[in-house]
Amino acid sequence: MKKELTAIDLFSGAGGLHLGFEESGYNIRLCIDNNDLVEKTHRRNFPEIPMIKGDIRDVTAEQIREYLGGNSLDVVIGGPPCQGFSTIGHRASSDPKKRYAHDSRNELVLVYANLIKKLRPKFIVMENVKGILTLDKGAYLENVIKTLRKAGYNAESRLINMADYGVPEIRYRVIIIGNRVGLPVAFPEPDHSGNPEDGLPEWTACGTVLEDLADMPDNPEFNHVALKHTSKNIERYKLIPQGGRLPEDKLPPELYRKNFGNTFKRLDPNKPALTMVPGNDAFPIHPTLHRSLTVREAARIQTFPDWMIFEGNRRQQGHQVGNAVPPMFSHKLGDFIKEQIEKAKELGIYECD
């Protein structure tokens, strides 16, 4: 009987990363997050997985090991909070004395890396937003990779579009993979493409996961509640074409609003969705209805299963969904890491100290 692979999830959020790994067959021994609502969502949906609700900076490697039951740790996964380096927000100062001081969340990536040194899992997976690539002109990510390499890991990063893995959403994320078993770092190959000449299945259209919800009445227990838009906004939405934005130059004076077209865009049902960005209910406009997406519709696009229920008010639910790793991608990533582990075992290099 094969030994079950063990994993823990640091900065677990709504659970998109560990959900995919669990579906891939990993035994998730522990999740850690410092958000009250995330904890409620976790307790509701993953009651069998222990959770530490607290600041990762206060959690020790010794505490974490207690949840492993004496087992070795195969994989540590985690997506440190990303708002600190969002390309939408402000960046860290180029002044070394002020660097990263504007947002303490940025240091959490290095806290993750330092915990890795002590826990010594065989493989590591870290996810973050595209903005980390250019934070401090690339020096920040370089420092993270350097920290992992000093800890004995072969580690590399890659910018990945989730749509290339079947997710019905254009969503670019930086994935860092590392291992300390001596394998060269590799990443899963895309299995979908936006280019027909690639010979792969086409990107998944967002309309395929939304169409059955269009006529569903509001259901708060299902996270499916439409926003009550003003009549003026509804009239604006009617002018937005599929896959387009509000044509500001053709608006009657009573509907004009500066920058409206840059904020509100309608999805094209025949293409992947725009990135689900958490914010003030700022999900895109439905492909056919004159309203923004509900939380459930956004969760569908993010490939969460319908049994996942997100706690909190609508805005808080939206943040959890929008910040998550799509489970479809994390499942495929989990499968790929398993293949790497099997390769290391075949080579007789997996059981390193």
Structure description:
This protein is an alpha/beta fold. The chain has helices spanning 16-23, 36-45, 61-66, 107-119, 139-150, 207-210, 231-237, 260-263, 295-301, 314-323, 327-346; strands at residues 6-10, 27-33, 51-53, 75-78, 123-129, 154-161, 172-179. The protein folds into two domains: 6-193 and 326-346, 3-Layer(aba) Sandwich (Rossmann fold); 207-323, DNA Methylase, subunit A, domain 2 (DNA Methylase, Chain A, domain 2), CATH 3.90.120. Helix 1 (16-23) links the parallel strand 1 (6-10) and strand 2. The chain is globular, with a radius of gyration of 21 Å.
User: Can you tell me the overall shape?
Assistant: globular
Low-confidence stretches: 83-102
What is the architecture of the largest domain at the second tier of CATH? 3-Layer(aba) Sandwich
Distance between the termini: 23 Å
Strand content is 5-15%
Number of helices: 11
Number of domains: 2
How would you classify the helix and strand content by structural class?
alpha/beta
Record field, number of beta strands: 7
**Which superfamily, in CATH terms, is the homologous superfamily of the largest domain?**
Vaccinia Virus protein VP39
| Proportion in helices | 25-40%
Query: Which strand order do you get reading across the main beta sheet?
Result: 3-2-1-4-5-7-6
Say what the CATH topology of the largest domain is.
Rossmann fold
Sketch the major β-sheet: 7 strands, mixed
CA-based gyration radius: 21 Å
